[in-house]
Structure formats: C-alpha cells, structure tokens
C-alpha cells in the first residue's frame, strides 16, 4: 500500500480538520445555495454546475487531484464523487435536517485546493473518504432543489452529465500539467482553487 506523501506533514491534519468542520456544520442551516424557484429540466440541470463557481471549482478539483495522484484515483475519485452525491441528493429530497451545507461546500474547495497545492498523495481510501464528505454536501444542496424542479428526472440527468464533464476537464488539465515542470503548475492551480475556497468561506 502506498503511503501518504507530503512535505512538512501538517497539511493532511489541516485537511482532515476542514473535513470535520464540514461534518459538524458550524454555520447556520443551509439556504443560500438552494434555488427557491421552479427551475427544472435537462438544460437547467446541465447549466447549474457550469454556472455555479463553487460547484465548478470543487468538481474540477476532484478531477485535477485524481490526475495528480495517478493510478486508480484518476478514475476512482471522479466516479465516486457523483455516486456519493446521489446519497446526499436523496437526503436533500427527503428533507433530512442538515446544517452547515454551505460551509461544507466552501471547505470542499479549500481542502481539495490545498491537497493539490501540496501534492498530497494519501492512500486511495483516504482520498475517497475525504471527497465522500464533500460529495454529500454538494449532493444535498442540489437534492433540495429537485422537489421544486419542473422535471426532477431530467434535471438530475443534466446535472450528472455536467458533473462528469467537469471531472473530465479537470483530469485532462491535470494530466497535461503533470508533464510540465514536474506538475508545478498543477500545484499553483491548486493554490488558486484554495483561495477560491477561502472566498466562498468568508462570503
């Protein structure tokens, strides 16, 4: 089994701590991200991840991180994320009480950005556990929208396809950047994503 590789040793603990905050939900109950109107259908579902900067950054980061890690995570992380999002989506549809969803979404961008910036290579199960926490948050936010959508099934199909597209973009960019200066540009991009997470966290 490949051991976690990271210079310094403090970042994994920081990322785990951020994940814990997402679970604890230290902010008020989520409401800002949830669409209150009746938007729905395939087009709305496909456009939403592409036009929502927070979701785009997180899903792009999943693909980028998988490409940076190499091996099975190249495909296992992007496949697992939308599958686990379904669980969060069902929780949102059922109205399962959860708080701190917005905080969890912002922390997902920050933590994934840091993982890329510091080239953190945990065991595959550790990476999957991390993204599972954040996938629940992203899925819940969108699942809460589905009951009010004009066509929930078409909306969900569009959203999943857009999510997969963003993951593929992240993988493509990551694999390309890994060939340039030993992946330093990937790490710079990860730092930029982490800054985006800070922005969403404070706003």
Number of helices: 8
Give the strand content: under 5%
Shape: globular
Label the structural class: mainly alpha
**How much helical structure, as a percent, in the residues?**
over 70%
Spatial gap, N to C terminus: 40 Å
**Weakly predicted, low-confidence segments:** 1-5, 7-11, 13-38
Q: How many DSSP-defined strands?
A: 0
Quick one: biggest sheet? none
Oligomer: single chain
- Rg over CA atoms, rounded to whole Å, is 16 Å
Give the ordered list of helices and strands. Answer: HHHHHHHH
Mean pLDDT: 80
Transmembrane segments: 48-67, 74-93, 99-118, 125-143, 155-177
Organism: Breoghania corrubedonensis
Protein name: Urease accessory protein
Keywords: Membrane, Transmembrane, Transmembrane helix
């Amino acid at each position: 089994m490949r051991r976690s590789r990271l210079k310094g040793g403090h970042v994994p603990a920081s990322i785990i701590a951020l994940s814990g905050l997402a679970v604890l939900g230290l902010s008020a109950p989520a409401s800002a991200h949830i669409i209150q109107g009746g938007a729905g259908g395939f087009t709305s579902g496909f456009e939403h991840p592409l036009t929502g900067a927070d979701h785009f950054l997180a899903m792009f980061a999943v693909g980028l991180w998988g490409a940076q890690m190499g091996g099975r995570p190249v495909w296992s992380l992007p496949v697992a994320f939308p599958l686990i999002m379904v669980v969060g989506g069902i929780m949102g549809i059922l109205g399962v009480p959860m708080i701190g969803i917005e905080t969890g979404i912002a922390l997902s961008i920050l933590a994934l950005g840091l993982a890329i910036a510091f080239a953190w290579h945990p065991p595959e199960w550790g990476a999957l556990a991390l993204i599972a926490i954040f996938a629940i948050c992203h899925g819940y936010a969108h699942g809460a929208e589905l009951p009010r959508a004009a066509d929930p099934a078409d909306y969900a199909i569009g959203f999943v396809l857009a999510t997969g597209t963003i993951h593929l973009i992240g993988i493509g960019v990551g694999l390309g950047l890994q060939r340039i200066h030993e992946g330093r540009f990937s790490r710079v991009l990860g730092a930029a994503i982490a800054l985006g997470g800070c922005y969403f966290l404070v706003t």
